[in-house]
Each structure stands twice: as C-alpha cells, then as structure tokens.
Amino acid sequence: KQEVTQIPAALSVPEGENLVLNCSFTDSAIYNLQWFRQDPGKGLTSLLLIQSSQREQTSGRLNASLDKSSGRSTLYIAASQPGDSATYLCAVRTNTGNQFYFGTGTSLTVIP
Amino acid sequence: EAQVTQNPRYLITVTGKKLTVTCSQNMNHEYMSWYRQDPGLGLRQIYYSMNVEVTDKGDVPEGYKVSRKEKRNFPLILESPSPNQTSLYFCASSLGRGPSSYEQYFGPGTRLTVT
Q1: For B109, which of A34, A36, A43 is closest by C-beta distance?
Q2: In a mutagenesis test of the A interface, which of B54, B97, B102 is the best target, namely the one with the most A β-carbons within 10 Å?
Q3: B108/A51 CB distance under 8 A
Q4: Best residue of B43, B47, B93 to probe chain A, by most A CBs closer than 10 Å
Q5: DSSP string, A4-67
Q6: Mean pLDDT of A7-18
Q7: Are A87 and A38 in contact (CB under 8 A)?
Q8: What are A16-39's pLDDT values in tens digits?
C-alpha cells in the first residue's frame, strides 16, 4: 500500500524567504502527483499537477519537482508572503488503481 | 462557475440515525470521490466512482455507502453512523480522461459530528 509522508509537519519562516516543502512516497509506480493548499476550515485548492513522465511544473512563484525513482517531490515557494500561510498537501495516484493517497501535510506560517 | 458543492456543510447527529451527504459537480467530470480528513491521519479515500453506476472502495469504506445514478451527483450515505465517523468529509471530482485527467477539484467540506 502506498504511503505518503510530508516533513516537516510545521514550518515558520519570515516573509520574503524562499522555502522548500518535501513529499515522499513508498511506491514509485505512480501516475501523477498533485500539490494542494488548504486554508483553515476550507477545502483543498489545486496548485500543481505533475505527470509521472514530467520532472517539474511551475506556476508563478511555485515550482514542483518530481523524482519518481527516489520517491520524492518538492514544492519550492519563492519570495514567500503572509498570504502563503496555509497547510500544503501532496497526493499521489498509483498506476495500479484509481486511488489517491495523501500526505498529512505541512503547515506553513509566513511571518510579516 | 465550475465547482463541487456539498450539503450540508455542518451536521450534528446521533448514533444510528441514517444520513446522506450530497455532492454535485457541474464540470461534466467522470471521476468522483469521497475522503475523510482526521487530525494526524490526513485525507483518506472512502469510495470513488469512475463513471455512472461504477463505484469502488477506497482505503476506509466500512460504514459508508455511495451511489452514482447520475454523472453529476455522488451522495455519501451513512446507514448507521457511529462516533468514530465524526470527521471532516470532502467530495472531489476530476475529468477522468486526457493528460490532466486526474487533477482533482474539491468541495468545501462537510463537518460531521456523531454523538
């Protein structure tokens, strides 16, 4: 069974800093990997989707990379802002089925 | 506006009283799914549906039922709720076809408390 881990569980940085969030998964046979943000009391907002054949995706200040063979993905946030404060989740879909597996998230606080 | 809607948003009920949480999407998506989110455990998939009349169990299906009679709707049914089903529930949908077919879009969540 696929297991997805996100470390650290919480991260606090000053505004303007660049930061990296990590996601690791145990089964490298994935179809894709998706990063989300979740604001308190709200649903999940999709940030980036990386197909298994891709190495990275970029959207504005966000860049996500994927290394399938090592079972890792990173989400890079450039020039962080207080509005980036949220919980960031990664999820993988495995090749063997149509299920999705989520990490437990990294809670990010950007201090003004 | 493209969206996934869930109702109700908040629900407090008692053990054993059957309830249904509705989910609807207006994006003509084929794939729909239900998740529960619990502290320390993250999101876990309950059931998913690849298309009308096609449903499959996720990781934690016990105590839940689903149906997919129409493409846009995917209700979650708790026939006899128990306190361990107190959780935050999310419905999600995705296109189901094409390169980005499994980019998921989420509803706002339903907070369920079973006493």
Answers
A1: A43
A2: B102
A3: no
A4: B43
A5: EEEE-SEEEEETT--EEEEEEES---EEEEEEEEE-TTS-EEEEEEEETT-SEEEETTEEEEEE
A6: 96
A7: yes
A8: 999 999 999 999 989 899 999 999
